[in-house]
Amino acid sequence: MEDRQFRNAMGKFATGVNVIATEVEGKVHGMTANAFMSVSLDPKLVVISIKEDASMLERIKQSQTFSVNVLSAEQQKESMIFAGQIEYDQEFKFDRLDGVPVVPNALAQISCEVSGEHVEGDHTLFMGRVTDVKLEEGEPLIFSCGKYRRLEEQQVETSV
């Protein structure tokens, strides 16, 4: 199968949009990602997947901390900034959660310490031990088939 066909198949799976952030030598770095999942409740663990040629890879290895920021439907601009899709002429202002940089107003801010890493294919999987979580109300930003989307409530029909 061709790479494009595989990529298109993976794009059929709708995902939330996240910004991964870390800090190295006093400078905060962020990147948009959708390769994120929860792994365990006890202990509280998540995993992110970073491509081997991404500059974020070495930064997370160096800092040994990262945050996952689940973006709201109103934060498409932030997603595009950290995906390099639009220029941002100011310094982005991050908040902090347990000392780790986080995106302000994200639906979920999750601070993590790296507890393991595993190279598979052209990506490194970073296991993160969750150190803190902050939640906000709102609807998530969704990405599917190469486009940003919003959730729509469905009416559930019941028959008696």
TrEMBL record:
Domain of life: Bacteria
Name this protein carries in UniProt: Flavin reductase family protein
EC number from the UniProt entry: 1.5.1.-
Gene3D superfamilies: Electron Transport, Fmn-binding Protein, Chain A (2.30.110.10)
UniProt entry keywords in alphabetical sequence: Oxidoreductase
Lineage: Bacteria, Bacillati, Bacillota, Bacilli, Bacillales
Pfam families named among the record's database cross-references: Flavin_Reduct
Domain Flavin reductase like: 10-150
Gene Ontology MF terms: oxidoreductase activity
InterPro entries linked: Flavin_Rdtase-like_dom (IPR002563), NADH-dep_flavin_reductase (IPR050268), Split_barrel_FMN-bd (IPR012349)
